[in-house]
Structure prediction request, 468 residues.
Amino acid sequence: MLSRKAACDSHGQDSSYFLGWQEYEKNPYHELQNPTGIIQMGLAENQLSFDLTESWLANNSDVLGLKRNGRSVFRELALFQDYHGMPNFKNELVEFMAELRGHKVAFDPKKLVLVAGATSANETMMFCLAEPGEAFLLPTPYYPGFDRDLKWRTGVEIVPILCSSSNDFRITGCALEDAYQQAKKLNLNVKGVLVTNPSNPLGTTMNRDELNHVIDFAITKKVHIVSDEIYSGTVFDSTSFISIIEALMDRNDDTHDLWNRIHIVYSLSKDLGLPGFRVGMIYSNNESVVAAATKMSSFGLVSSQTQFLLSNMLSDKKFTSKYIKENQKRLKRRMEMLVSGLRGAGIGCLNSNAGLFCWVDMRHLLSSDTFEAEKELSKRILFEVGLNISPGSSCHCCEPGWFRMCFANMSQETLKVAIRRIKAIVESTTSGRENCNPQLSLCNSRRRSVSKWVFPLSSYDDHEAADR
Prediction:
């Protein structure tokens, strides 16, 4: 009775990435009401700087009340708006994007398309650039939601560019060529490369060598580059972020033909911590792409009220400058807190400089070097100590034992509890291996770990500065 699209299971909801989410929703952690519930470390959400935005709103109550110069603009905002977006908002957005990139890149608002979040932006790019059955190459590990965003409705295929821990998961020319040849073996026509910079889940920025590898590849193969830069404002060291446009500008060779095949996806969900506002955008030098994406945006517009509020907020340059700097400081402190806690448990992380998460190396805790063992460990972490973290296999990592842990969607106190729980699973795993009766050891360890969860938070011995 339903269409094939409605009946098929290609949405990706059965991914291990979503298993923990489902369990978390059944039993969410609360420090007072449910202290043994599941802590959500699988959600890349930035809650560290809400006080800054809330303070701005308190000082600009007219904007929140939909007023301009003391007079209501409700009627103006409530009436029909076309899908091109408000000029003032688009002007402020491109200035904000330039500010995040140290004004090394300038953006033209006429080349900007507003859509309802980065999910819609990435899907729209696929509709614009590829036919069903054609392919995009993505470096692994990559955001699990791309299996839904890029493939589900568009019919576009993803071919992985396999990156490994041997070089900190950096993109190489050989890996790009291998992926291209693999696509050819599968009779897939490659239309482009999609990269996330900074990377989700790695929490790292692409270096110039990587960017040049991707640019060289796109020139040679005559394909598109889509650069998802939604975490560009989370870079702890802003000098280390190089946008794809900046990288192309800095090259001395003739890349004129490539400019029409470079596209950027951005949103305010991560950098401003506003995922509920559903503000995403596409930036492209290709007039045909801009025209087509603008027409498609009518299926997912940004509300007029949202555009009005945020255009006023972003026009306050004193606020945006303070917010960017302070938010980056807070993210860095929170990342260091998690890394330090993990190190105390004998767990290492990939060196990161951006994002809302750490890429955590738990290979030594696997019972064997297999993805089945990773799945087993993931379930133990979820059901035994109550942490939802994202297994590397859900990100298509080619090596078992890596996990993504988010740190910015919770309070500092909750993160302390999470670190204690991580230590508990390490202790239970270690004692289980050493004890001739692993089941008994695990049971005793679990009893000890549960009691640790409900200790007063002040008992956690750390020397991290407060977030605020």
